[in-house]
DNA sequence: CGGGCTTGGTTAAAGTTTGAAACAAACTTA
DNA sequence: TAAGTTTGTTTCAAACTTTAACCAAGCCCG
């Protein structure tokens, strides 16, 4: 089949998106690196843990929510553990498993970094959008995200490497 | 001043965006790594060069268009040069400068990879959006991107590290 | 029970990105 | 024009990500 190239509108949208998304992530990383000494993803790890019951989550669940690989998470948690912001514990129900737990210190650091982070997100993104656009943004990326639930694979109807299964809480 | 936290709508939009953007970038990287042996950013470098007059661009201009640091670009171009896809030449007008040039081999590789890449972009993004949403996407990220033109700096009205100046073409 | 497959998590090596110097050419200006 | 500053690019080390094993614990079924 002959390639369906992008239409001019699609090209403009794609370029605007790719460029701005990169700038936003960079700015976010820089801001958090300055004020909290960690990149955005690490902040997200703390943040996700803080919202979980007992501030704890199994590694696989955490990876799944953050949409990152287990290996990447292992590395990150090891670093955060060294910094005393997260602690690991063995899962009592499944001896293979381990749980990441946000420490009090981690909670403090998170709370200290949150205002600056939110302010940045706001100034980069929401301050520039109308309320309608905020709604559109949500719809667009919800739609895009859903594409990853059912195995969209391209040309070669391959196996889907991004889908992940779930596991019991193990609180 | 007390923090202006995100509203529930903003939170939903932010989460949908962060998650999906990550998945998209990952999928793009994986697809290009498979089919072209390079990450998305490297592909963008080739692509940008291919659209420039004489397929050449000064390092700084290239970095600016791609919204990446010069250092990152240097590393990438060094690798692409090793692979024979790009060639460097000294700038005749400004002896400090150097130009990156897409080689014929680079052009071939790019052309070979383009269809698969476009197909992926389409299946991940545009196939899931209505034409109106494509328009909204462009507007949203154009607005966001414009925020980086005038120095938006946050809380501490600091110096702006992302703004870059321009330089002569040096064709 | 006892292989053999799957799952949860880590590890090692290679590749990439970052951020702060280092350098050298170009510009400014006294 | 020498001294100081800015600009274009590279370099280096440290931090991070990826990929592909690897290992142990659960699971399945004859």
TrEMBL record, chains A, B:
GO terms for biological process: response to stress. Residues 152-171 are annotated as: Disordered. GO terms for molecular function: DNA-binding transcription factor activity. Residues 1-146 form the HTH marR-type domain. This is MarR family transcriptional regulator. The lineage of its organism: Bacteria, Bacillati, Actinomycetota, Actinomycetes, Kitasatosporales.
């Amino acid at each position: 089949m002959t390639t369906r190239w992008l239409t001019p509108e699609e090209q403009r949208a794609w370029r605007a998106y790719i460029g701005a998304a990169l700038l936003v992530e960079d700015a976010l990383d820089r801001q958090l690196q300055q004020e909290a000494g960690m990149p955005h993803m690490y902040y997200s790890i703390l943040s996700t843990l803080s919202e979980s019951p007992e501030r704890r989550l199994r590694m696989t669940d955490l990876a799944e929510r953050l949409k990152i690989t287990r290996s990447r998470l292992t590395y990150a948690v090891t670093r955060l553990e060294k910094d005393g912001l997260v602690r690991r514990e063995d899962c009592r129900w499944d001896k293979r498993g381990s749980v990441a737990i946000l420490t009090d210190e981690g909670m403090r650091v998170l709370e200290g970094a949150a205002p600056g982070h939110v302010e940045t997100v706001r100034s980069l993104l929401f301050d520039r959008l109308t309320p309608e656009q905020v709604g559109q943004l949500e719809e667009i990326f919800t739609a895009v995200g859903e594409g990853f639930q059912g195995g969209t694979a391209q040309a070669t109807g391959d196996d889907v490497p991004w889908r992940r299964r779930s596991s019991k809480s193990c609180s």
